[in-house]
Amino acid sequence: MTDFGFLPSKIDRVVVLSGAGISAESHVPTFRGEDGLWKNYRAEQLATPEAFSANPELVWEWYAWRRSLISKCEPNAAHHACAKLEKALPESWIVTQNVDGLHRRAGAEKIVEIHGSIWKIRTMDRREERFDWDPETGSTPELIPWSEAQPRRMLRPGVVWFGESLPEDGLDKAVELCRTADLCVVVGTSGLVFPAAGFPEIAKHAGVPVIDINVQPTNISSYADAFIKGPAGEALPPLVDEIIARSG
């Protein structure tokens, strides 16, 4: 049983920073390296603006395949714990590196998806962006989707590709949340990919306690106020219950 003595006595505002580890228990594929090989292509070859410009049909076919796999995955106990926390502490938010949409399917609404969502489509200039398709069924549009507002303009997946910068509004919101929270909970992220890897450190420098949850110690563990070892689905729910008990 975990001793939660490291928690502040009163907590009203929590920022949860989630990475691929929280979705691993839902068996979401990584789509990277050999495990993500598709028709002899790797993610690094397809998830780029250049690949889309050269062969949009191929890129959309790959994303349709990815959505079909992700649609079969279900939110796990950690995703549901995050949604429960948001409902109990309305000022709390989730900042996620994941594009799978499982936080939303678990019922969470206050989410900053810094890498976008595989269930969104948008124009290259971001003037048009919206959710599309049902992640429950994995339904997909006819290839290729086209803009309704801007004729003859193809829509692309609403995710951040290799070589692209993260949207400034999402980054600014994440930084603000980390600086103003009562507690920062990091779940399932290695702390190696920037700029997201820097969010917990921003919280720490602002005097916000940081808790790192992972199956193995990470770079974040070295300066976190507490490290909880274990799968997110086992470690996060009891922590959330304790946080809610200290709220208000």
Question: What report would you give on this structure?
Answer:
With 248 residues, this protein is of the alpha/beta class. The chain has two domains: 14-27 and 75-115 and 165-245, Rossmann fold, CATH 3.40.50; 33-72 and 118-159, SIR2/SIRT2 'Small Domain'. It is 32% helix and 16% strand. The chain is built from nine helices and nine strands. The strands form two sheets. It has a six-stranded parallel β-sheet with strand order 3-2-1-7-8-9, sandwiched between helices. A three-stranded antiparallel β-sheet has the order 5-4-6, with helices on one face. The protein is elongated, with a radius of gyration of 18 Å. The mean pLDDT is 89.
What's the short story on this structure?
Helices cover 32% and strands 16% of the residues. By secondary structure, the chain is of the alpha/beta class. It is elongated.
Helices and strands in order:
Layout: E1 14-18, H1 20-24, H2 43-46, H3 49-54, H4 56-70, H5 77-88, E2 93-96, H6 102-105, E3 111-113, E4 116-122, E5 129-131, E6 156-159, H7 168-180, E7 183-187, H8 199-205, E8 210-214, E9 226-229, H9 232-245
Helix pairs in contact: 5-9, 7-8
What would the keywords be for this entry?
248 residues; alpha/beta; Rossmann fold; SIR2/SIRT2 'Small Domain'; 2 domains; 6-stranded parallel beta sheet; 3-stranded antiparallel beta sheet; 32% helix; 16% strand
